[in-house]
What we know:
By secondary structure, the protein is α/β, with parallel strands linked by helices.
Amino acid sequence: MSPSSSRRLDGKALIVSGASSGIGAAAARLFSAAGAKIVAVGRDSARLAALLEDLRASGGEAVTVSGDVAGADTARRAVDAAVSTFGGLDGAFNNAGITGDMAAVEDLPPEQWDRVIATNLTGAFHAAQAQIPALTARGGGALVFTSTFVGHTVGFPGMAAYAASKAGLLGLTQVIAAEGGPRRIRANVLMPGGTDTPMGQAVAHTPEIRQHVEGLHALKRIAAPEEIARAALFLLSDDASFVTGTALMADGGVSICRS
Ligand SMILES: NC(=O)c1ccc[n+]([C@@H]2O[C@H](COP(=O)([O-])OP(=O)(O)OC[C@H]3O[C@@H](n4cnc5c(N)ncnc54)[C@H](OP(=O)(O)O)[C@@H]3O)[C@@H](O)[C@H]2O)c1
């Protein structure tokens, strides 16, 4: 049985941020096929509307919330949508993120630093702050935050704000897991390797850079977005019922490869 047909998320109401593109869009489709009801979050309402149409056409239940994850208001509206439309919240894939412009630390404009931290790290905090009470009211649930290998096992030049924001998610997640454990709330970080999305394509923007990035991975390729979505599905599902406070690397071996 394929993961999408196994209904491993049957009936769960899940928020997916960054659902308008890449990993988040693949996750929204996969989770929906696995039986979840989706609150799809992003800024691009046209792409969210197209996703919504697809999910509903495939028999899924979904709603969209357009907004900037850097603001607490978007996080609250997403939780409100889950509660008012689906009767509660069972989990979230807090996945929206940006790399920001590439620049060495000494050249990085502080406003660029602020924007990346606000989106990737403060946005995750706002999401968790809005989601935890709803999960508590539900008697438990699962949160997954999308980090990366950059800033964890690889110091990638030019990506200071991105690396710092994503490394910060590990600390945030550990605390949420410790605080939420007694209330049956699990929290984990997902660490993808290079993934073939608009973000991945922007980083590997020439054939030479793409070949170089692929070669950094033990598998000598980057991931399809669905491969990362499958790892997120595992962490959100009851298959991961004893997995909390940890980081799952779905990174094609980029963290261990020296060849
Ligand atoms: N691709 C890779 O190689 C790779 C590797 C490791 C980790 N990751 C992480 O995986 C996650 C998904 O990235 P992706 O590769 O799928 O990139 P992507 O295709 O560029 O998608 C990023 C998503 O995040 C949303 N987003 C960005 N800023 C937002 C904001 N301020 N408010 C609301 N939504 C926002 C975008 O939606 P809108 O445009 O509609 O706002 C989009 O849906 C990111 O956290 C990224 O850091 C990616």
